[in-house]
């Protein structure tokens, strides 16, 4: 080996060694940062769990008070069992909060909630309920006033726990975000002079960060959905309670109307629960659903609710898909309602069902509206993005999440009626599902 050959060899070896060292340094740093992100995400989930439990406890306490109030309103003990069930729920949630308490301050707050809850329960059983049954208005009023004091105390404690959890979540999110930004900058610096092998590592890290960002978005929506769902469930529960009370005395068409109100209120509760599945939509048993029947049912419901106006809706085609039926109806209702709103009075909506040879199904909803601009089309499925003055921007985001959880997706393009066409694609059934059918 000559001097030139030896020098070249050494340079190649040095260059290769430098590349390996650069890759090792980048990999080590990236792995360390990913571990930090993983730990931060785990802590974020734990804090988020405590926040959800605190909100559930607040809802359970309000339910307990609602049954107490119903006892006063109805003047009998018909809500005693419901009060007992609500009380059991409060106790279970309180125990879970006590198990997950981080420090002495949280444990003291939970202990105070437990003591206040015990006092409220004792007041109901030993004082208020006997006063109600005895028709002692003065005693009832006095007991109700004390009950409000205990409920307010519990609510204040729960609000404090929720505020602490939210503050901790914000801190964890800021920490994870700082780690993400720091990791990205150093990864670019270390991998800037690397070869394709090192560039591949950079792509991997970029994809991992992107997945984490998407996960955090879904987690944020899940937290929002949880808060909204708990608040909506309360008035829905009251509506259902009064509807069922009225049904006992209703006859004829009024009874039928109340039954429809009850069904729709229950359906609203199902939809609210569906919002909680943003981070885990589509989990649960699936069944074969006739797509045409589902589409026609959605159109009928919208027509009864006067949500279609003078819009003409035609359904064509047949097909079956293995899905969670309530989730499918939620998606179809969103798509048809949006299409009708886009078409406007006197417009047209077409729902066309098709099944491919492999069993995969498609439901295309077209409208005669103005269509969707390219700018809006790129963001249609982003949470909270909407083109409507009063829209929430959650309908299509939730629908896409449900479709993806079923192994499908929703795509948008231009339809034959001149407006937009949203196509829900669902995969073919698995062998196990075909065998079950």
Automatic annotation (TrEMBL):
Its EC number is 2.7.13.3. The keyword Ligase does not apply. The chain crosses the membrane at residues 186-205. It catalyses: ATP + protein L-histidine = ADP + protein N-phospho-L-histidine. CDD domains: HisKA. Pfam families: HATPase_c, HisKA. One of its GO terms (molecular function) is phosphorelay sensor kinase activity. SMART domains: HATPase_c, HisKA. Residues 227-430 form the Histidine kinase domain. Keywords: ATP-binding, Kinase, Membrane, Nucleotide-binding, Phosphoprotein, Transferase, Transmembrane, Transmembrane helix, Two-component regulatory system. This is histidine kinase. It comes from Corallococcus exiguus.
